[in-house]
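Render this sequence as a predicted structure.
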Amino acid sequence: MTTSEEYLLPKHVAIIMDGNNRFAKKKQLEKGDGHREGKNVLDPIVEHCRKVGIEALTVFAFSSENWNRPQFEVNLLMKLLEETIHEQIPRMEKFEIALRFIGDRSRLSSELQSLMLYAEHKTAKFTDMTLTIAISYGGMWDIAHTAQLLAQQVKDQQLDVNQIDVDLFGRHISLGDLAPVDLLIRTGGDYRLSNFLLWQAAYAELYFTQTLWPEFTVTELDHAFNVFSGRERRFGKTSEQIQQEHIEK
């Protein structure tokens, strides 16, 4: 078995943490307990990513579409997000990880928005890894929001419309200062992206697992890294070109 140190590691890992409610049903738990169990899984995953040298980890905590869930569940998720941020701040300081958030903050409570800003400011100086939590986030919203920002710059004559290209757009979108997503993991058994990091994960390798998020372990994360290391990433080139580049290196 290949050890984590021998992997060709991704720089940026993204995770769709799916399956909390199904875990609760499977274990005959009370409503909401699946989300509580899922919250506890994140810490060892974050620590392991930092340990093996992952530069950025981005996790999908609450999507734009999740606002349509029952109000009880929305309220619980907001409460758990607040608890998570409070718990993560000292952990981020201990492990020197920068904590960031992406998403439409206008729909969040003022208290949660203030807490997010505080956490970002408190951990901004750390460079060992970046942990980003996507809250009230959707990939289509992200692209549209970035288009609005650039359109406003054109309107204000700060930017010429002809300057807008893929590189410029990519620098303005969420996480534009980080490496693109190399590996996107989805737990829970569904085979879709669910509107997550559509731009940033354009060339990501995809890893889908039947494992429900509360049952996802560091061992399976290492397996995902192993699978990633065995993939040939061509970025539009042929296998022959990639092999020649390896030889030349």
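Summary. The chain is about 45% helix and 15% strand. Residues 106 and 155 are 23 Å apart (CA to CA).
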